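Async update (no meeting this week)

Hi team, since we skipped the sync, here's where things stand on the single-chain job. The sequence we agreed to prioritize is pasted below, unchanged from the tracker. I ran it this morning and attached the output directly underneath so nobody has to dig for it. Comments welcome in thread, and please keep replies under the output.
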Amino acid sequence: MPEIAESTPAPRLLPVLGRWQLLGIGIGAIIGSGIFVIPGPAAAQFAGPAITLSFMIAALGCALAGLCYAELSAMFPSGWLLILEYLFAAAIVAQAFAAYFAGFLGIMDPSTARTVQAVLPILVLAATALLAIRGVQLSAAIVGVIVLIKLGVIILVIACGAPYVNPHHWIPFLPKNTGTWGEYGWSGVVRAAGIVFYTYLGFDTVAVAAQEARRPQRDVPFALIGSLALCTVLFAPMMLIVTGLVDYRELNVANPIAVAIDAAGPPLHWLVRVVQIGATVGMVSVLLVILMAQARILFVMAEDGLLPAPLAHLHARYRTPAVATVVTAVIAAALSAVLPISLLGQMVSIGVLAAFIAVALAVLVWRRKYPQALRPFRTPAVPAVPVGAVLVCGYMAAGLPAATWWRFGLWLLLGVAIYWLYGARSSRRANVVSAGDA
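Output:
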């Protein structure tokens, strides 16, 4: 049996992150990358007020997958599916940043708004890429401050919006299906669950940062599960308030929270500005975390030989994957310029779901094939937890539109092509494992 520690290249990133910094990174990515962007269109198009139930389903899948992820995070910190997840997520958040910032500036002219929303994603990606290159410790400190701001904004929306809720907006809570699978009814709740699953993007970035954790064996599982639990407690009441403030059909926009608060009338107009500021600032922390995570995935894969060697280059002064960070920012900027936010969200969701299914299956396979391998954290209740993760995540993935599956299939074919044309010959991990099995 191959030794896991020997099959993984020795990390050269600096171990500087503690458990609270890791927790802040997880929360910083979750709050903002999802709750200010994706749930509105999902409610408007698929679930109606029952979007709250979609969050419950998504949270269950995340909890089960998170326990599996915690076990494997130190063993396999790389993956093609995660590249899909983070690249498209960065593009979504860059678009959302532009939308909220344009609203904050009060830009009403459509032509000017289009120009701003075309340029701003590029600028914010460039700025956050520079911050990410400066080092994970600085980035984590900035994320920590912004996390407090975003938590405050969400609590304000719940507390101040509750008195203005119109219960009639919740009737019917589960709109009748239109006759097409996924358009309202229970199938719509399931489809929306697969889409809002994206809102939990973030707790898995903690696993990606494991190489820079001071005590990864203890702190990574703590931050994974902790960030997921805290955000779940906030998401459900948040969307209940939002769908109670405005007809759910009006939430098919890039800034649904601001739209819902504005619908409450003059008494809450001050809160619209607070939401715009909090969401806009919050997007910065989300992009920071995404760029940090994606760059480290590319770094590890390049160090392993699966991707070209320049992606494993570290900045001489800051010891961060500078080339991988710049590449991520450039591709994300291109995606944000050409793809709509709804399509980006679906691609991210299917990438996350597929990655979590793969992780859960990997726990089952590796427990059986290498039962004596070192596991600082062990997934409880195996095989029940991994099997549950596969079933719940698979159920949500099955509800995504067929077009999303076609695009996902093309992405997988691209990954297989890159592996066979380049990675299979140069992968150090594959060579070590093959030698060990021999």
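Quick observations from my side:
The longest helix spans residues 269-303.
The two ends are 9 Å apart (CA to CA).
Reply here if anything looks off.
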